[in-house]
Amino acid sequence: MSTTRGMSDRLAAIAAQVTPGKTVIDIGTDHAYLPIALVADGTAPSAIAADVKKGPLAIAETNILKSGYAAKIRAVQSDGFQNIEVEGGEAAVIAGLGGATMMGILSAGAGKVMKLSEIILEPQSRVPDVRKYLCRSGFSFVDEAMVTEDGKFYPIMKVAYTGEKRLLTEAQALYGPLLLEKKDPVLLRYLEKETDGLATIERGIEDAANLLGMNEAREAALVGIAGMARIIQDALAYYL
């Protein structure tokens, strides 16, 4: 696994989304690798490393002390933004959490979140739901990236609260409106993988139906696959 300043490809891609010069609030910091790297390379003048769990936060505090940046990075035990004061203009990072948890954090801290200049998100699940939530809650997409690491694909979203609401197509919700507009090459690889995966599933359904005679179940499953295939084709159309 290649790294940048000791970070994984995933964390390096997240760090690259942070606008230089902003104090960074890292929610769910775990071991504080991200805020340490951002302060070390001069991207962030200061940072807050927040985690709801005492164990990871203790490790984060140790790593911050070892890094020599204890004067610039503050560790805070906090459930989302609960114990964090947001003055306005800071950048926040919420990465490596499930989509439901992420949406809960944004909703619970709405008053503080609206003051942030940017939020970088990397949900580990329910990615389409997160995108839809953002759009109906008044967040606008500033940038999107996708990175692959150890055979997995990770979408990264940079958003800001503007109060403007919009609807996404199913393809945009699944694969990212800006990733599609940019014709992102990593996303293209993911779409090709999705296409191959659907073909494999379809063959498995056909084989099972022929073996077990479950034609009714077969038809229902194939309808679902055809619907997903159409969404993928809508996404691939951006690359034409």
Highlighted features:
240 residues, alpha/beta
Molecular structure report:
Helix content is 48%, strand content 19%. The protein has helices at residues 9-16, 33-40, 54-67, 99-108, 110-113, 127-136, 170-175, 177-181, 185-212, 215-236, and strands spanning 24-27, 47-51, 73-77, 91-95, 118-122, 139-149, 152-161. The protein has a seven-stranded mixed sheet with strand order 3-2-1-4-5-7-6, sandwiched between helices. It is built from ten helices and seven strands. It starts with 8 loop residues before the first helix and ends with a helix. It is elongated. The chain is of the alpha/beta class and 240 residues long.
